[in-house]
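Input record (Table S2, row 645):
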Amino acid sequence: MLWRYTKTAAFYLLVAVIVLVSVFPFYYAILTSFKSGTALFEINYLPHHFSLDNYVSVLTTGVFVRNLGNSILVATSVVVLALFLAVTAAFALARVSFRGRGLLLMTILAVSMFPQIAVLAGLFELVRGFGLFNTPFALIFSYTIFTLPFTVWVLTTFMRDLPMEIEEAAIVDGASPWVIITKVFMPLMWPALVTTGLLAFIAAWNEFLFALTFTSSNETRTVPVAIALLSGASQYEIPWGRIMAASVIVTVPLVGLVLIFQRKIVQGLTAGGVKG
Amino acid sequence: MSAGLKLKQVKKAYGSVQVLHGIDLDIKSGEFVVFVGPSGCGKSTLLRLIAGLEDITEGTLEIGDTVVNTLPPSKRGIAMVFQSYALYPHMTVYENMAFGLKLAKAAPGEQDRRVREAAEMLQITPYLDRLPKQLSGGQRQRVAIGRAIVRDPKVFLFDEPLSNLDAALRVATRLEIAKLHERMSDTTMIYVTHDQVEAMTLADRIVVLNYGVVEQVGTPMELYHRPDNLFVARFIGSPAMNIVSATITGTGAPATVQPETGSPVTINAEVAASYLDAKATFGVRPEDLTPTDGPGLFTGTVSIVEKLGEVTLVYLDTGLAEPITVKIDGDVEIAKGETLTVTAPTERLHLFDENGVAFPRVSLSRAAE
Ligand SMILES: Nc1ncnc2c1ncn2[C@@H]1O[C@H](COP(=O)(O)OP(=O)(O)OP(=O)(O)O)[C@@H](O)[C@H]1O
Ligand SMILES: [Mg+2]
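Output record (magnesium ion complex):
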């Protein structure tokens, strides 16, 4: 009896620690973002001050709104482009047999293991060569390259498990490969598409190194870089309040997306799979 | 709209593995043809070649006088019912059935009329708005058949459509398919199964396949009464035909053979003189054997008795390599250890040469001349 209570207690204690560790930084950021002036440097764990000054200042001075727009544009384009390419590639890799298919799959997996920094210089040359430097396309291009291997791999695995006979039924019904992909497979792959799309979005939204390297002006930056480069009134002042306000602003959409789609993912997974 | 099929030396190989070795087949318009054979003999492969889901390696396939070797499935005028139903899980029954018409850009009114007509025919109208996962196995299979009917095919292809259903439902759906064939009398139907009863009851003609070769094509009764070879003789009929090795002792028509034990047997077969003293086998079906008091074909001890109700299966130890199976009336009392003599009418014996090929049969009247 006692042992069971201890076990339960230990379990919830562990959960509490995990929640605390993962949520506390964000909570503290929110707290800080509502403080102003010298209150910033007081340490307290419960809300004492409430002022929207930091938010107003972030959104009205400088080009933060523009940066936010860039981030949305880049991340959305990456998701759309990567999913389109990955779904079509996955169809070929999963359902069309051709010479060297296995090798190609392994290569794709291997490519996804390169660290960003290793290809930074080469990618920079490419971006310059294509004349994409300091445009959103530089980021869309490089993020898509980095997202694709994972996306293709996941979707290929998923598509391979879809029943062959459903595809054949569609062929007999006169469906072209494009119709099979869009009308038959995509609706069945909804959970996989949401998951991979969400991960691609988050990765693009948070990416820092490429964003810093491939853009040079304030107007073309995405938010992670913009936040890092926020500066105070003087060189010696770090505007913590505004940084925190900006961080909260960019985190909220992500949390929202995950909450919306999480329900969809769970729905998709519990709908009984794909059984003819 | 109707069409026959002509297969000329159709071959299929996967890489270096030859699966079909030159199939010649003529299927008449409106005929119900069943492919049977043991697992792995190539029934599904042959059906998929006809459907266009696999490429033909060699030979030609004609549907209604047009060579269709390179035509995609949707242009061949076929419809296919799959073993696993293969319904689109995310579409309602209605959408499942209308999908092909929609892709063919049929007028919406026409689509609706055809879907409802097929649904009415199969009694699935109440389920039109449901998803496949909300249907029972039998209902799903009917939807799959409905989806095929809606396409108004010239040739209807079935690949073991009943094998996922339980026994009672299988019988019901089998009758359903038989009725369907009656109603769509000018639609050619090709049906793959390894269930003999389905084959015997549904088929106008049965094609028996073995290792990618056609063993025999004929009506169910032809296959049952006049198997061309040992394989067909053993494959058709349940329980399987009794096969006994023997030596040919009398040629001409009828012929005489001497089994390893027992007395000589006269068979209504025409055997050329050159076969004298050759090895042969003769066969007799369990249901053709009847107990007798006088001299008979086989005498032996009853080793196993299986009572199935209406009939009883008796296994006789006669000193031959295999026990002889006898199917007798279920009311007859018989016990293990008894001695039993059984006999069969001469015209119900089948004689095969050393290679398993049947000797030509002679009719009773001619044999008497
Ligand atoms: N894609 C393939 N690659 C290689 N061999 C194959 C392929 N498909 C089928 N075969 C082989 O072809 C032969 C015939 O297969 P098929 O599916 O036609 O058999 P079947 O008569 O339908 O058997 P069953 O009654 O078990 O369904 C089998 O020996 C199988 O191993
Ligand atoms: Mg098969």
